Amino acid sequence: MTVFRIQLIEKTTVSSEAIFSVNSISVEAAAAEVLLAYRKAENSGTTVILLKDGQREMLEPAQIAQAEVTMLHIGEDGETLGVITTTKLRRSLS
Fold this sequence. Notes:
Blueprint lengths: L4 E11 L11 H18 L3 E3 L5 E3 L4 E12 L5 E13 L2
């Protein structure tokens, strides 16, 4: 038998959501206001989205939207010799 070096790589995509009621001139302007609040929160390192009118919602990962596991064949020097398989999974964070 031969000894093979296999590297397992897991990539996950988490999802969270918040719903706001925004009084605006258009749906695009309303979305822009929410996006601006999101960017401010992101730049501040917080998950609390705060709109100008005081609405606040917290983004917390509710579920893993997608997980992908890849197996690589790795050589003695650490180089990737080939991709063996990639599998997409679905699972929750609970």
